[in-house]
Amino acid sequence: MSRELFRFHGGVHPPEHKAESNSRPVHPAPLPHRLVIPVRQHIGNPAKPIVAVGERVLKGQMIAAPDGVISTAVHASSSGTVTAIDMQPVPHPSGLPDLCITIDTDGRDEWIARTPLDYRAMPPEALRQAVRDMGIAGLGGAVFPSAVKLDPGPQRVIPTLILNGCECEPWITCDDRLMRDRADEILQGVTVMRHLLGSSEILVGIEDNKPEAIAAMQAAAGRLDFAVEVVAVPTIYPGGGAKQLITTLTGKEVPSGKLSTDIGIQVFNVGTAYALARAVFHGEPLLARLVTVTGHVLRPQNFEALIGTPMQELVQLAGERDGMTGLIMGGPMMGQPMPRPDVPVVKATNCILVKSDELFPPLPPPLPCIRCTRCADVCPADLQPQDLYRFARAQDFGRAQEYHLFDCIECGCCNYVCPSHIPLVDFYRYAKSEIWAREKEKKAADLARQRHEFRLMRLEREKREKAEKLAAKAQAKREELTAAAAAGDPEAEAKKALIAAAIERARARKAEVTPKNTDAVPPAVQREIDEIEARRAKILAQARKPLESEKET
Amino acid sequence: MLAAIGVMVGIAVVIGVVLGWSAVRLKVEGNPLVDKIDAILPQTQCGQCGYPGCRPYAEAIAKGEADINQCPPGGEEGVKKLAELLGVEPKPLDASHGQPKPKSVAVIDENLCIGCTLCIQACPVDAIVGAAKQMHTVIAEECTGCELCVPVCPVDCIHMVPIREDLPHWKWKYPRIALKEVA
To answer: Nearest CA to CA, how far is B85 from chain A (Å)?
Structure first.
């Protein structure tokens, strides 16, 4: 290992807590009775359901199709019957429900016909399409559709491919177990990635606290017919962040607001490579993933769980204990609290961390910021968190953006070191989502303005066109008449006479319709009219006379 | 003395010519301030301000005819932004122009719609599609929630439905910090 390594700015070293769960072998989780599969498991557009309630589906059958470029498919994780397509609780910190497809499993676990892909013979575009239809998304946590990342774009080639096996976050060990047990298949996935991206340099970054995984990956790399360099990187959180790993391995820094592909580097998680290998060499869509269940449980371990399995079932398998205070999806630094324990495992679920007051005592109430800049010392994005906090708190979002709020990776290092226990990342998330909402509103307003202006223009144009049409018609008529009169055309004379006759007729009709029933009425009718008038006058007089009772008072 | 006057007059003439020429050549079309005000207004085109749309209101503000607090959809925040732009003190919304409401979209009850096209003519952003004696419907993404279609409907089949918070529209809340635990 002669590679020179570089050090990114900041970082922390929290207690690792890896030993709890990484010693037990991966245990396949039993088939649950009911699978709840959200259609929004990845970044981008949610998949569109393509099955109906009551339909029988097979394991691996696509149940929701990708919608748009940045999207990916969703599949039935086991065979059974679709019992509902509706809003269900999903693993999201908001606790809001989202569209899910519920499958009652039949226990037979019956597969669709699986056909491996001959990826070398396929045109790259067709292969990417197939990857998209297999539902592959980044399993490191961001769940970005992999087909998009496997497109080298106009550069045609991405020289450096980095496989991320750092797993820097405490407690999580699913990538560690995957690399120990299935190193060969991970590298099979790398051959497909290399084929699509045309990479010449392939690096696997693994933190040096996982010697078994490093050894397994090195042994597997030795069996390949191309060079893969397995590099042990120092254990510093967040060394597994894509940008931080790029810096560590290459010394390059991804410029603010740019992508790693702009500097010729693409990064994939080891789990994604494994899923890609299963898809290409076995024809299996992404149906299951390794999930670490750890924290306040009896037997912390890794499960191979189907997408859609309720988290609670995995916690029970690992041995539920008294004093559980909630679940976190992900690790203690970046993970998000789950609204309830029965939300399903999704593609992003790398870890279910069971909380208890003993392991994660509630933080003391935050104190004012003393501007000690410890957060700036540990920020791996080289930001000034204390200033970002000040701006976000004051809702001065413009200034926050000027201070590169969007380069924040929400790693939580600043929270970890803050002596005042300020939930800094919560403020950054708040500011980011406010800025996004405002941008959306601005776009909607621009659209409304455009449509309103177009409407005004349209009304103006319609008015003008109508006026022009009428004017043209009148002009034509006038011309016709004058031409006829000048020519002394007998036909025109006759027409004029006809018009005159018509005018006369109209006048006569008008005179006819004026009512004639008030004068020259026969005496009998006149008498009747008089009687009615008299009755009316009497009633009117009575009505105007005050009542007897009113007079008395 | 005469020379001094001559020099001053000469300078004045030269500057006058330059200014006169630049006034003609570098003329700015329209009022840029109106564009800036218009960019702040929410483009609901609802007319609650008393002007037939956001741009006329922006023009009125620029001319000093209208106050900055007549736009309920823009809310207090809109008033604040206008005040900042114009260098005046922000003031509370003028209640006579209506109260700010949660963002809503118009929904046509398709069973009741008689296809009279009155709402189509009232919609300031052409967000209603339909034809005479055919059912109409609202394009929800383009509806600004101005409510102008509601009063014109002869069968009262249009209702304003507030936009409910769902996952894609969810926002992280302002972190609330309890400074002292209340017993």
So the answer is: 15
Low-confidence stretches of chain B (pLDDT beneath 50) = none
What CA–CA distance (Å, rounded) separates A116 from A281? 5
CATH number, domain B32-97, options 2.60.120.260, 1.10.15.40, 3.30.2130.10, 1.20.59.10: 1.10.15.40
pLDDT of residue A490: 72
| Pairing of the two strands A288-295 and A351-356 | parallel
Contact between A365 and B170 using a beta-carbon 8 Å cutoff: no
- Which among A94, A444, A445 has CB closest to B170? A94
pLDDT number for residue B180: 57
Residue B154's CB is within 10 A of a number of other CB atoms, namely 9
pLDDT of A477 = 85
Q: What CATH code would you report for B104-164?
A: 3.30.70.20
* Number of residues written out for chain A: 553
Using CA atoms, how far apart are residues B15 and A188, in angstroms rounded to an integer?
A: 78
Q: Closest CB to A96: pick one of B126, B167, B179.
A: B167
Site from B167, B173, B182 to mutate, A interface, most A CB atoms within 10 angstroms: B167
**Opening angle at CA B2, ends B1 and B7, nearest 5:** 100
Q: Give the distance from CA A144 to its chain's centroid.
A: 10
How far from the centroid of its chain's Cα atoms is residue A263's Cα? 27
Q: How far apart, in whole angstroms, are the C-alpha atoms of residue A252 and residue A261?
A: 12
For B14, the token pair is 């030269």
Q: Across-strand partners of A337?
A: A328
**Nearest CA among A201, A174, A168 for reference residue A186:** A174
For the record, the structure tokens of A305 come out as 């769980």
A128 token code pair: 């990417």
Cross-sheet strand order for the sheet of A48-49: A48-49, A62-65, A74-75
End-to-end CA distance of chain A: 116
- Which residue segment(s) compose the domain that A225 sits in? 19-356
Say if residues A380 and A176 touch (Cβ distance below 8 Å): no
Place of tokens 């509806």: B143
Q: What does the pLDDT read at residue A552? A: 46
Tell me the domain boundaries of chain B.
32-97, 104-164
Mean pLDDT for back-to-back runs of 10 residues, chain A (553 residues)? 85 93 92 95 94 95 94 95 95 93 94 93 93 94 92 86 94 95 95 94 95 95 93 94 94 92 94 96 95 95 96 94 93 93 95 93 90 95 95 92 94 95 94 93 92 92 94 89 73 79 85 65 84 87 67 47
